[in-house]
Amino acid sequence: MREEVRRIALRLAYDGTAYAGWQMQATERSVQGTVESALQRIHGQRVSLTGSGRTDSGVHARGQVAHFDTDMEGIPAEKFSLALNRHLPGDIRVMSSRQVPPDFHARYSACWREYRYYLLPRRIADPFQRPFCWARRDLPGPPVLNRYAAGLTGSRDFTSFAAERDESKSKVRRIRSAAFYPAEGFTVFRIVGNAFLWRMVRALVGTIVERAVRGDDPAVMEEILAAGSRDAAGAAAPARGLFLHGVYYDGIIV
Amino acid sequence: MREEVRRIALRLAYDGTAYAGWQMQATERSVQGTVESALQRIHGQRVSLTGSGRTDSGVHARGQVAHFDTDMEGIPAEKFSLALNRHLPGDIRVMSSRQVPPDFHARYSACWREYRYYLLPRRIADPFQRPFCWARRDLPGPPVLNRYAAGLTGSRDFTSFAAERDESKSKVRRIRSAAFYPAEGFTVFRIVGNAFLWRMVRALVGTIVERAVRGDDPAVMEEILAAGSRDAAGAAAPARGLFLHGVYYDGIIV
Known about the structure:
The structure is a homodimer. Chain A is α+β, with helices and mostly antiparallel strands.
């Protein structure tokens, strides 16, 4: 009898503070490597895990999606979350697990990715906010910041906001929405796009905040995009404020 | 010229996860000890710090209040927060500092103390919620829980909810309000009283949840209070869900 192979998708939340990012590294602790270790504990053999994309060192996730293939019987797809959480540290949680079709791919099937960046318009962040936001007492309000974000939607070339190490051939990305809004004392930047270049969200936030604080004409954002050079934009905002909020697929909710 | 001694009150927020509680200990790391070390760094000599009360190992605070006396010149009272935060680890923050009258006492002048206990009515808490709540999938809703909390207000003898180590002579405490309400996915128990016995809030939450899950008649709470014995009540809820939310003084906002 042929063993049935199932493809399982996981929705993962993690506090990225203690990790060198999503991707497995030779020497440092990665989220992917930690979850693969838990998969190995359950399967008794190495199982590889494919994520929707990398998150950088120190970046968090509420809704990272990843898939793996399993020939294990006896564990219903929905119970992998519990089984894995038993072997995972508290700063990584599998929020749900479900079987997906064999051609589902966490990275290539993804239609949209949503990031949120948390800014705190105060000087002192309390110990509960501090690891998860960028506190700036001089932060302008959402209406001002939104003037700088207004032109980001549509298909644009984001070369000026890509880290030098970004290896994508095309730097054009399609942004569905990009806006600042107030939420529970924070100012949140929410951006939804088909995909993102390396460090792109942090470069956008860092640049918008820098220019808005300085009081530049919001038209400067068009000039920076047109320059097609990383030097035109500002410094990247700190990793600790950034969350991969969710990854969205056609017809499948993980 | 006589040196002017000023009394300074601090409002402190801390993530209690890594601490053996507020009170200084011979061997373990305490919040009080950590802040006193920062005071010593600034003053070049030992400065003692008096808190509004102890918080237990693993309990958090958003609004602990403490005072100290200083003869240092050159630091305005409001700047002690910045000066101390420079020497404190990120899981303790001084949210504000201000000069108070010399007869102000963080413990004895306190009129009301407010605690909040965070319950999560789900099986899996994400990594951002997990260190700060008690996740119970079987948790009844606030209207049900409030039937058990309804009789706690007024001046009552809380002997049944005091840890054995509690050394207070009178176990009567005056509770101004005690109620469960929903907030951002959590069920929060908010309790305001003149003072609290050792482990009292956690014993109340643990007992109410236990009895409500079991479906006991809410009148059982009166029986437990009347019994005057710790054995009558249930196990204390975990420390990680409890926050000292604030301490209130007559005419002074710290």
